[in-house]
TrEMBL record:
It comes from Desulfomonile tiedjei (strain ATCC 49306 / DSM 6799 / DCB-1). Pfam families: PS_Dcarbxylase. One of its GO terms (molecular function) is phosphatidylserine decarboxylase activity. Pathway: Phospholipid metabolism; phosphatidylethanolamine biosynthesis; phosphatidylethanolamine from CDP-diacylglycerol: step 2/2. This is Phosphatidylserine decarboxylase proenzyme. Binds 1 pyruvoyl group covalently per subunit. It catalyses: a 1,2-diacyl-sn-glycero-3-phospho-L-serine + H(+) = a 1,2-diacyl-sn-glycero-3-phosphoethanolamine + CO2.
Length: 221
């Protein structure tokens, strides 16, 4: 993430509320001469900070590429899908499951303009369940760019009940840039027009902003 001053942040700001208190307690224990307790809280703060790590990535160049919006494992690839965010449009869907150990920061799959953002309350089923796409709490973003319109949906899960989105409607965004975070992992769905071909299969491991998950047909570029 880049903060307002333009500096890169190696830890997502949403993680500060978790690991800073442990770091403060560790320091206080050290001042009070409780070295073992201080070490325990220091270790906990490091582990929590790791959950919110925010590594830099270098997006691949090329026309018609769609990058993974999340780190994790491809849960589903669906040839014929529908989305209430793009009604009446024949679509394909790729779902990426993020475990608690994966990087939680999300990145844009293509460049474009944010058309709409819609937060929908819902349930908190296991994000690996197919029904999670329809019934879980989620944040749906419609993005138009590179000659197409797509939908990116951040989905909450059993543990991940906090979705962060760092953009607003009308923002211009670049492929590979960070746009949000799902605290402690979960799932992210991306809906694409039928003119795209899958480049991944269920079980494949992907990295946000680097892995190519779909490619536009040459006849449509």
């Amino acid at each position: 993430m880049i903060n307002k001053a333009g500096h890169y942040e190696p830890i997502a700001r949403e993680g500060f509320v978790f690991f800073v208190p442990f770091l403060v307690i560790s320091f206080l224990c050290w001042l009070l001469d409780y070295p073992f307790t201080s070490f325990v809280f220091l270790l906990v703060s490091v582990v929590v900070a790791a959950f919110f790590r925010n590594p830099d990535r270098v997006p691949p160049l090329g026309a018609g590429l769609v990058l993974s919006p999340a780190d994790g494992t491809v849960a589903e690839v669906v040839e014929h899908a529908q989305s209430e965010n793009l009604p009446g449009v024949p679509l394909k869907r790729i779902s990426v499951f993020m475990s608690v150990l994966n990087v939680h920061v999300n990145r844009w799959p293509i460049s474009g303009i944010v058309q709409s953002i819609r937060h929908v309350p819902g349930r908190f089923l296991d994000a690996r369940e197919p029904a999670a796409s329809d019934v879980n709490e989620h944040n749906a973003i419609v993005l138009t760019g590179e000659g197409v319109t797509i939908a990116v949906v951040q989905i909450a899960g059993i543990l991940a009940r906090r979705i962060a989105c760092w953009v607003k409607e009308g923002d211009m965004v670049c492929r590979g840039d960070r746009f949000g975070l799902i605290r402690f992992g979960s799932r992210l769905d991306i809906y694409l027009p039928q003119e795209f071909d899958f480049q991944v299969y269920p079980g494949d491991r992907v990295r946000a902003g680097e892995s190519i998950i779909a490619r536009r047909n040459k006849s449509n570029r």
